[in-house]
Design brief:
44% of the residues lie in helices and 16% in strands. The protein is built from 14 helices and 14 strands. It is an alpha/beta fold. The chain is globular, with a radius of gyration of 22 Å. A nine-stranded mixed beta sheet has the order 3-2-1-4-5-6-12-13-14. Strands 7-10-11 form a three-stranded antiparallel beta sheet. It has two domains: 69-229, Rossmann fold, CATH 3.40.50.720; 232-405, L-2-Hydroxyisocaproate Dehydrogenase, Chain A, domain 2 (Alpha-Beta Complex). Bound molecules: nicotinamide-adenine-dinucleotide.
């Protein structure tokens, strides 16, 4: 790891090691000059220096790596720029170390972390940066802490939009939508302007589907397929519930589907799910739970829909470790692909599939290959009336959220 743009870190390092690289970078940030050119020049120096990443993410230039823990085949790949917003929050703290350890993009893929926070959280973020440094992750080429969207999103390959406004005292739902709309309008525009044209965006901050739609609409030069929201956590929760009920391990379960909005209208669906029994035979989920349709349509759906709330009640704060785990799994599936026969729940832009109004960010079963996702086709005939009604209730809620945030903009 080589540099940071967080001013506290720069100043402390300047005192300790006043080299030309850090002073160039610090000058850009500290006096409020354009930080990105400063990063560019810093990066050139880095790439020439010993002990650093093999390829500069900004210039693309190769540099030989003369030492070190990272001088394996991994150092020959261009580091991917991963932007994490809300990096100083609970989920941020749980996810950064997994990304840096290679769990998200592969154990041979170097990464550069760009951590975006609100200004007052930057000093605290410096602590996280120090911990990242102290892990000496071979794949982590660089950490940049910033409150500047241009610095955060410049050429980013992967954007995890986690930071969002929580509901404060006296805030109603419309206020919450409005406060978050402001954040995601701004970040959508910044992505449009600065991100790689191949960027993959995952929105985690709630209301995740609507925030993803807002960001997407404010990034007209990026493909709509670049924007997704997270329902992988709901899918994993559903897999775990089914496995417990069927008395099998989670790895014996596949094709559990979550449709719709990441909210209490989501529809966790067992229609297509398969369970491998102890004897190796694969059966339908319904058969695996003894034909208990009442459970599949009632308790199962309810438990998954309300799981987030149950965790808040028990923990007195929202789920963070499991959310980080799910975000890693979402991105890993999208970038590295799904295994044959595996479906991943991704909330993606509808083009009318399964009757969902086009333009909504809706959770579908997907497969992924070569960095692209495909909504699983041809399931219509197996969806029953119960399922159709649940799927519709969820898209109607998304339409309502869309109306609400738009009316808050007037
Ligand atoms: N989709 C899901 O499955 C899922 C699951 C769990 C949590 N969430 C949501 O994820 C979000 C983050 O959760 P958390 O527990 O980490 O919250 P948190 O409050 O601990 O952290 C949020 C961080 O975002 C930062 N932030 C706020 N506005 C920002 C902005 N404009 N730019 C950059 N950073 C900003 C805050 O300073 C804070 O550090 C919440 O909205 C939560 O509801 C979603």
């Amino acid at each position: 790891m080589s540099a940071s743009t967080s001013s506290t870190s720069i100043f402390s390092r300047l005192r300790a090691a006043p080299d030309v690289l850090l002073s160039g970078l610090a000058a850009g940030v500290a006096v409020g000059l354009a930080a990105v050119p400063a990063i560019h020049s810093a990066c050139k120096l880095l790439c020439k220096g010993p002990n650093k990443a093999a390829q500069c993410p900004f210039t693309g230039a190769s540099a030989s790596s003369s030492s070190s823990s990272s001088s394996s085949s991994s150092s020959r790949k261009r580091p991917l720029v991963v932007t994490v917003t809300g990096a100083g929050g609970q989920i941020g703290y749980a996810i950064l170390f997994q990304i840096a350890a290679g769990r998200m993009l592969g154990h041979d893929q170097p990464v550069e972390l760009r951590l975006l926070e609100i200004t007052r959280a930057l000093p605290m973020l410096r602590g996280v940066e120090m911990e990242l440094e102290d892990c000496a992750f071979p794949l982590l080429t660089r950490v940049v802490c910033t409150d500047d969207e241009e610095v955060a999103f410049k050429d980013c390959d992967i954007a995890l939009l986690i930071g969002a406004r929580p509901r404060g005292p006296g805030m109603d739902r419309a206020d919450l939508l409005k406060a978050n709309a402001e954040i995601f309008v701004k970040q959508g525009r910044a992505l449009n302007k600065w991100a790689s044209r191949d960027v993959k965006v995952l929105v985690v901050g709630n209301p995740a589907n609507t925030n993803a739609k807002i960001a997407m609409e404010n990034a007209p030069d990026l493909p709509k397929t670049a924007f997704t929201a997270m329902t992988k956590l709901d899918q994993l929760r559903a897999v775990a519930q089914l496995a417990v009920r069927a008395g099998v391990g989670v790895d014996a379960v596949r094709r559990v589907v979550v449709w719709g909005n990441h909210s209490d209208t989501m529809y966790p669906d067992l229609t297509f799910a398969k369970v491998r029994r102890g004897d190796g035979r694969e059966v339908s989920a319904l058969e695996a739970v003894g034909g208990d349709e009442k459970w599949a349509h009632g308790e199962f759906v309810n438990t998954v829909q309300k799981r987030g709330g149950a965790i808040i009640q028990a923990l007195q704060k929202s789920s963070a470790a499991s959310a980080a785990n799910a975000a890693v799994a979402h991105m890993r599936a999208w970038v590295l692909g799904t295994a044959p026969g595996e479906w991943v729940s991704l909330a993606v832009c509808s083009q009318g599939e399964y009757g969902v109004p086009p333009g909504l960010i809706y959770s579908y079963p997907c497969t992924c290959k070569d960095g692209r996702y495909t909504i699983v086709p041809g399931l219509e005939n197996e969806i029953d009336d119960f399922g159709r009604q649940k799927m519709k209730a969820s898209w109607e809620q998304l339409q309502q959220e869309d109306k609400e945030w738009r009316s808050g903009q007037k």
